[in-house]
Specification:
Blueprint (H helix, E strand, L loop, with lengths): L5 E5 L4 E8 L4 E8 L5 H5 L7 E5 L3 E2 L18 E3 L2 E2 L12 H7 L3 E4 L3 H11 L2 E7 L4 H10 L6 H5 L5 E3 L6 E6 L5 H9 L2 E6 L5 H5 L5 E4 L10 H10 L5 E3 L2 H9 L15 E5 L6 E11 L4 H20 L28 E8 L20 H13 L18
Parallel strand pairs: 3-4, 4-6, 5-7, 6-8, 11-12, 11-13, 13-14, 16-17
Antiparallel strand pairs: 1-2, 1-9, 2-8, 3-9, 10-12, 15-16
């Protein structure tokens, strides 16, 4: 067996041994997890993960390499990456390098071979906390001392925001949007442009006068890392411009707008980072809405893509809530079709399928594909929603003690 050469040490004293890839530097970060089955390149290059090590819940990472057109920022600032299985031999004709090579280029350390299921449960139960990614021979005592002495920086927005004004114009564009970059993903710019909006992106500490000088039709505040209360210049900017222009934000930007209007924010024990988000009725305990977003490359037939996403969500809701498939010792089904507990039409919640349409392959019309992959994140998202609802952990499918539970 190959000898472990890296490990993670958490503040609670737990240790996770594994194998290093990417940069071999030592790093202290906040540890979080993401349940998305695909999109690791977008996750690694998302500025929102600055000063964080992301644990990928999906077990196989690296299998399609790195492509030039899928970065969300030019210089990734993620703190680190932890995975179960890392594939260093990608199969994808678009790939220009391996994930490890890209991480080494940008100084991002990684660890593979760890029990990510156990680690995700630990984060889910105890919350996000500091973690040290270091060499395997670092003692636990030494690691805990380093963790205790280190404070996660609060300058994340300042670090990731662009330093100069940048314009992304659309010929004959209908609207002109002023975007405040708090850690803005490049796909947001692409989405604006596809909808006929020219975008001027400003650094986070831009004055209200400079923004008013371009006479925008609206103002957008981007996603970004860290505590919104640390982005004081942006909060003050919103206070000066509110009421003068239509204004909206995503993620951190939305929180900043809330602070500017006098609301308060607080840090969740752990965030929901993934592709599917259930909305639950707190009175009945039933799911009111499922929101599922999936990258399809070029959506050649958007309606068909939506149908594939909806089908995957429904299939996985059955796995999560109602279905069982008993078999005998020879793997032969022993129940009739009608008694398997398939999810029924009248039980379905509203399903919001979000087709992420962006440049894809140079063949097949630019399509990447969509299908069974849409079913993977749904059940974990539902299990997490029920935990937030009644604080009961459920580790078996179908989930027990829900309004959907069948009497077998």
């Amino acid at each position: 067996m190959k000898k472990f050469d890296r490990k993670l040490i958490l503040e609670d004293g737990s240790e996770y041994y594994g194998y290093g890839f990417g940069s071999d530097g030592e790093r202290i970060t906040e540890i979080v997890f993401n349940t998305s089955p695909v999109g690791y390149q977008e996750i690694i290059s998302d500025p929102s993960y600055t000063y964080q090590t992301v644990v990928m819940a999906y077990p196989l990472i690296g299998n399609y390499g790195i492509t030039e057109g899928d970065f969300e920022t030019e210089t990734p600032t993620i703190g680190g990456l932890a995975v179960r299985n890392y594939n260093d031999q990608p199969s994808n004709f678009r790939s220009v390098c391996t994930l490890s090579e890209m991480m080494e280029k940008f100084g991002i350390p990684g660890i593979s071979g760890i029990d990510t299921r156990k680690l995700v449960r630990s984060i889910r139960n105890l919350g996000s906390r500091k973690a040290l990614l270091t060499d395997a021979d670092t003692s636990l005592q030494e690691g805990l001392l380093k963790l205790a002495a280190y404070k996660i920086p609060t300058d994340a927005v300042e670090r990731v925001s662009r330093k100069t004004v940048q314009k992304y114009e659309v010929s004959g564009g209908t609207y002109h949007v002023a975007a405040i970059d708090c850690g803005m993903k490049q796909n947001i710019v692409r989405c604006f442009n596809r909808r006929g909006c020219s975008v001027t992106v400003f650094p986070w500490n831009t004055s209200a006068e400079e923004i008013e000088g371009i006479k925008p039709d609206g103002i957008f505040l981007s996603n970004g890392p860290g505590d919104p209360a640390d982005a004081r210049p942006v909060i003050e900017l919103v206070k000066k411009l509110r009421g003068k222009y239509p204004m909206f934000g995503i993620c951190l930007g939305h929180q900043i707008i809330s602070l500017a209007y006098g609301a308060r924010t607080y840090k969740l024990r752990f965030g929901h980072r993934g592709g599917n988000h259930p909305v639950k009725n707190l009175e009945t305990g039933k799911i009111e809405k499922m929101v599922a977003a999936h990258d399809v490359g070029k959506a050649v037939n958007p309606l068909s893509c939506e149908g594939q996403i909806e089908g995957g969500v429904v299939m996985s809701m059955g796995y999560a809530l109602t279905e069982r498939y008993p078999i005998d010792d020879n793997c032969k089904p022993i129940d009739k079709y009608g008694s398997l507990g398939l999810f029924r039409a009248h039980e379905l919640p509203e399903i919001k399928a979000i087709v992420i349409d962006k440049p894809g392959l140079k063949v097949a019309g630019g399509a990447i594909g969509i299908g069974e992959i849409t079913s993977i994140p749904t059940a974990p998202a539902i299990a997490d929603a029920y935990f937030r609802y009644d604080h009961e952990r459920r580790y078996e499918l179908p989930l027990k003690n829900t309004p959907y539970e069948r009497k077998w």
